[in-house]
Amino acid sequence: MHDIYEITPEFLREQGVELLLMDLDNTLSPYIVDDATDGLKAWIEDLKQGGIEPFIFSNNKGDRPAMFAEQLNVEFVKLAKKPRQGMLHTVLEQKGKTPAQTAIIGDQIYTDVLCGAIGGLYSIVVRPILLHNPLHALRYGAEFPFRIFAKQKG
């Protein structure tokens, strides 16, 4: 998928998804932006109206997850330590959801998608919103073959 806006509540429901764990940085918003756009707010509301619970699931250790969660009126976890499974299991247990009822969306193969794959979640990878950091560009370059494979799988 190119970005989050291609993902509809109908698509998620067809996959059996009720809970959507969302990476924050470079998936919902660029690293350098601290305010949710009107488009992002509308997309989140669409998910809610469509019976999908959006949940910010971020490795970020700062204040951004809480700021976005407040702006979007969703719950969040920071320091999720993806791809480790500890916090994932905690959230699923607290939410009363199984892996089959949960999807994860993110821009990174080695954290977001790997976390979902290990945990048995439906995993969705999107293009990073902005590549302004050379180290991030290198990491995304290393992920390129996996992105091609994911695109071919549909």
Polypeptide structure, described:
With 154 residues, this protein is an alpha/beta fold. It has a single domain (4-153), classed as Rossmann fold (3-Layer(aba) Sandwich). It has helices spanning 9-14, 38-49, 64-72, 86-95, 109-119, 134-153, and strands at 19-22, 53-57, 75-77, 102-106, 122-125. The protein has a five-stranded parallel β-sheet, sandwiched between helices. Strand 4 (102-106), helix 5 (109-119) and strand 5 form a beta-alpha-beta unit. The longest helix is centred in the C-terminal third of the chain and has 20 residues, at 134-153. It is globular and about 35 Å long.
Helix and strand layout, with pairings?
Elements: H1 9-14, E1 19-22, H2 38-49, E2 53-57, H3 64-72, E3 75-77, H4 86-95, E4 102-106, H5 109-119, E5 122-125, H6 134-153
Parallel strand pairs: 1-2, 1-4, 2-3, 4-5
> Strand percentage, roughly?
5-15%
Uncertain residue ranges:
none
> What order do the SSEs take from the amino end to the carboxyl end, as H and E?
HEHEHEHEHEH
For the CA atoms, what is the radius of gyration? 14 Å
What structural keywords apply?
154 residues, alpha/beta, Rossmann fold, five-stranded parallel sheet, 44% helix
Quick summary:
The chain is of the alpha/beta class and about 150 residues long.
